[in-house]
Design brief:
Aconitase, domain 3; 3 domains; lyase activity; DUF521 domain-containing protein; alpha/beta; 5-stranded parallel beta sheet; 4-stranded parallel beta sheet
Length: about 425
Amino acid sequence: MKNNPMPAEYNAEQLSLSAFDRACLNGAEGSAIAKAMRFLVGIGQALGAHRLIDVEHCHLVGSYYSGVADVKFLQQLVKANARVRVPTTLNASSACLERKSPSPEADRAAARGVVELYTAMGCEPQLTCAPYHLPHRPSLGSVVAWAESNAVVFANSVLGARSNKTVQYLDLCAALTGRIPESGLYLDSQREPTCHVDCSLLPSGSWDFPLTGELIGLWLGYHCGTEVPILSGCDRTPGEDLLRGLGAAAASSGAVSLFHFEGVTPEAHQYRIQNLPGTQLTIGALTETAAPYRGIPGQAVSAICLGTPHYSLTQLRNLAEHMIGTNIRPRIPIYVTTSRYNRDALRNELLDGELAARGVQLLVDTCSYYGRAVPLPDGPVLTDSAKWAYYGAGNLGVTTLLGELEDCLATAASGRLTRAGSFPWL
């Protein structure tokens, strides 16, 4: 990689560069870092940023095989001795890399080659879409550069950290330099809510169901797009898994990267909702949102897919408790995706074997709606994740259905859609 000197246009007054930024541009940190800094400066100028700021952590989405050009680019960086400057983790890959994997060997080999290149640059190959489950997760005010959409909305909303949805390669440049343009959700002014969603008409017991968060998230994505909504009207504090399901769905059906929730999320208390354009969320609205994923009781189902985003340890324990308590023996595959970190924690509690003995296939490193990560289902798929339901239909060309965990397990036992839970809108 040739080291080109800093072009004159990078001295534009709108973007204030630190001594470190200029040294990187001029090649003091090597040719790879110079190229990364040139990209960051160009993006900063395009976004109208006034400066670059330090980031504490990066989470990259490029850890999958997307073709020869991408591999050659990464090889060039490795050859130029590129190394990340801040702790950096990798998102889910295009295949499960473990030896006992349902992914084809060719897919595993291709994905492994990409992951090894990122690892050579100092990235931590956790291969999870849920970096907030790993140790040392960000806290209120932390500045990070994350690229996975559900992780971005979780970091911004639930943790109060700060990140834009950092596109591929910009995320890598941030990791190599430890810098990012100060724009978008890094700015106080861009974190203010732009619309209000009143949830007070929903029955109090609604918040006991994780699917409530999934459907609210789908609705937010459809109706709020890129807005920053603030929700109100919840009479209890929803659990973390409900909130992350809400955010993941909103970032899938729309482009929501931050939501506030009055009395729940850490920054919501700063804002007034009185003068914001508002919407009353109703049972009818959520019933309509759920309709495409309702299905017909008794229809054949080909697989159960859980864990999008990757299942938390709490969700894995809950699944194990249900499987052990009911002694369900599935007639169709149950795929559960999670991180190696959470899988290993479950293994330490001797629960992964309990799930395996009952026909549950725990997958790590990937997501079950990615290409050939699992054998292609030949019929409808039931999931407890709105994100999986939204993306699975397009990625795999299958009919997707939503259900509670109880629905999923009862359906697995019979091979036909069974509504065993008490969720009111399905």
